[in-house]
Amino acid sequence: MLGLTGFSVFLAYLLLLLTTAFGIVYGIMYWNKDGEISESELQAEKDWMKEEIEIDEELIGGDA
Fold this sequence. Notes:
By secondary structure, this protein is mostly helical. The chain has helices at residues 7-29, 39-63. The protein is elongated. The termini are far apart. 0% of the residues are buried.
């Protein structure tokens, strides 16, 4: 029946079903949750973008 030749096979089937159920429940709970960014994270992102633009301008300016 279902190839259950030993306890380890039964345990593998059980863990498969449990992880699948956990994944479905977790996905439903966090389906449309928007991540909120703190003010410090937003400022760090802006600083990073500014630095990237400056580096790009230096590289483009150096080739021309």
